[in-house]
Specification:
heterodimer; A: 67 residues; mainly beta; 5 strands; 12% helix; globular; B: mainly alpha; 7 helices
Chain lengths: 67, 261
């Protein structure tokens, strides 16, 4: 199986354990990046895992949570 | 907003409150319930607004998705929270208030208004399957149905005409809606509250009596108001500058509030 976003995969791996913001289509998800797999990432939001397809990601950035 | 303000003005403007007490009591007590319904809908809207923006400094354009959303004003004029407008952003306005002062005409208008509200709710129910929205709509379908019946019975008291034979309008039982069924089963459709604990508005007992024309259940008036639930607190949205109080400012405010108590 060919990985569709090999470089995004490597970049995302470097962000594991950090709070990130992911843009997919018209929506934003913000949470803790817990795992990165060849075709999806796992983001934990309110202690709930979200499995987001790599193909759906438009951009990822680090989130700066203001308290 | 319309049911609340129509009944509110009709109650303020009621001529002959003593002579026609049960009818005044009805419109006044239902006004109080509608206040709660407006808050319920606002809260639902506020809970549904999530994941449209992210926390970031202004130059990161954290509200960038707002341009493609159905209501940009929700991001601009309000901090992704409710405003008194319809689903297309048209503001509610006072022209929607009908307070002719004629009892039969106002009751007939209220009956029509509640049937309209029910129709809109049924359609909105068919537009979304979000559980929060469905729960709110399901509950309001039942309470709306109760109000329709209340005005039908009020008109029967005044004119002798059995308006309940027209129901339900539209011709679909609340039970067909999954989210409404449990409230129907609980008997929420058989109760009118007085929303008052000092003995006012009990005149509604003379209208709200007998049996429910569709279920046969006994209609009940309960003094006071329903138990309600805890008010949800809403997330802070720094990207909207809402509430816009950072940790340092918070300390200053706390100090000033607690000073010299």
């Amino acid at each position: 199986m060919q990985m569709s976003n090999p470089y995004l995969f490597e970049t995302a791996r470097g962000l594991i354990g950090q709070d990130i913001v992911v843009q997919t289509g018209n929506h934003i998800q913000q949470g803790l990046l817990t795992a990165v797999l060849p075709d999806h990432i796992v983001v934990e939001i309110c202690q709930t895992p979200f499995f987001i397809r790599m193909d759906e990601i438009v951009w990822i950035t680090l989130s700066r949570v203001h308290t | 907003m319309s049911t609340l303000n129509n009944y509110m003005y009709q109650s303020f403007n009621f001529r002959g409150k003593k002579k026609l007490k049960p009818f005044y009591d009805l419109v006044a007590s239902i006004t109080a319930e509608e206040f709660g319904h407006v808050e319920l809908v606002s809260t639902t809207i506020n809970l549904l607004n999530k994941s449209s923006s992210f926390t970031g400094i202004p130059d990161l354009t954290p509200l960038q998705n707002a341009k493609n959303m159905r209501s940009t004003q929700s991001f601009i004029a309000s901090a992704q929270a409710s405003l008194p407008v319809d689903s297309m952003g048209k503001p509610w306005n006072g022209e929607y208030v009908f307070s002719s002062g004629n009892l039969i005409l106002d009751l007939l208008h209220n009956f029509f208004l509640e049937c309209g509200a029910r129709t809109h709710k049924m359609r909105v129910y068919e537009m979304t399957d979000h559980p929060t929205a469905r729960e709110m709509i399901g509950y309001l379908l039942v309470r709306g149905g109760t109000h329709i019946l209340a005005y039908a019975k009020a008109m029967e008291m005044v004119t002798g005409v059995d308006v309940t034979r027209m129901l339900p309008i539209p011709n679909l039982d609340n039970r067909v809606f999954d989210a409404a069924r449990k409230y129907e089963d609980r008997g929420d459709g058989n109760v009118l509250f007085t929303w008052n604990t000092t003995g006012d508005y009990l005149g509604i007992k003379q209208i709200w009596k007998g049996n429910h024309p569709q279920t046969g259940d006994k209609l009940r008036v309960i003094e006071g108001s329903p138990k309600g639930a805890a008010m949800p607190d809403l997330d802070e949205l720094p990207e909207e500058f809402a509430p816009g109080i950072g940790p340092e400012e918070f300390q200053h405010i706390a100090k000033r509030l607690l000073d010299k108590m």
